Amino acid sequence: MVSSRSAASIAPAAAVAVGVGGVLALVLVLAVGLGWFDGSSSPADPEAAAPMTATDAATVDPGDLDDAVTPDEAVAPDDAVALDEAGSDASSRADPASTAPATPSTATPTIVPSPDGEPVAVRLEVVATHPHDPTAYTQGLEVVDGLLLESTGLRGASTLRLVEPTSGEVLRSVPLADELFGEGATVVGDEVWQLTWTSGVAFLRGLDDLLPRGQAAYEGEGWGLCAEADRLVMSNGSSTLTFRDPATFEAIGSVEVRERDEPVAKLNELECVDGLVWANVFQTTRLLGIEPDSGRVVATADLAELVPAGFEGDGTNVANGVAHDPATGHFWLTGKRWPVTYEVALVPDS
User: Fold this and answer.
1) Looking at residue 105, what is its pLDDT?
2) Who's near 232: CB < 8 A, 6+ residues apart?
3) Which of 44, 71, 82, 305 is 20 to 30 A away from residue 233, measured at CA?
């Protein structure tokens, strides 16, 4: 029990304490309001509220980052910049011809024939450029299982080969007899038909080893060849396309190719794509889209911009080689002895 005297002596002290406490409380309120400290850390720690520096970030434990991006996710393969062995940016020193611009649409072009019979103009969008064997006298080109099947010509130098597309490396090559001049080739199932120029013989080869399994005779010259679902389409250097049975190579029909009602001669390398036949025209830079049943030219493209320096006006080492990649919708285009293969998108002008 506190005596009355003691209570009397305590009261002034309590009043002073309350007064001092009020002042301290007021100071605390003012300090927080003025941002002298945020109440969550000590004002004596100057780094507590400082932003993280680059050095600090480098020392963060990766396990503390719940949303960290893994190395595989950080840069997709298609977006990665290649580094050479020293770790420097190889693209900064690359030949401009081997660089790849931004990738355009990957859709295979849809050609809507003009009702007035005028061919649709198609422009080229270069997706990338890749090395090509400058000794290859290209006669046929086709994409198969992610590789390029290439048939080359000239007597004593004709081959059928499988090529890695982006590096241009020849993975397998089988020569023809020296007296034969290789021409176009196309895949049918697990086999390949390959033409010869003036020998009147087509070779049936295995796709796995490229070795002959049989042969068939035909009349006239052999130039280009491609495969539709139920027939082969063959050119012979004229304006005529011949349809052939894919099993026996027997002729089952033909059509004359006409542009604005005029026959188009020198049809060369062929590529069958979604109901159209795309054809190089020998000794020109023209690429034609042809309706095979009617023979009507419904689309045209000019490859002049792709001709390598020094090949302009060359009547021998001309544009020849058209391959369509169904995985991307892109076309692979090259020429006889060209050092480069172009990966392009064909875009119809609107």
Assistant:
1) 52
2) 186, 188, 193, 225, 226, 243, 244, 245, 246, 249
3) 305
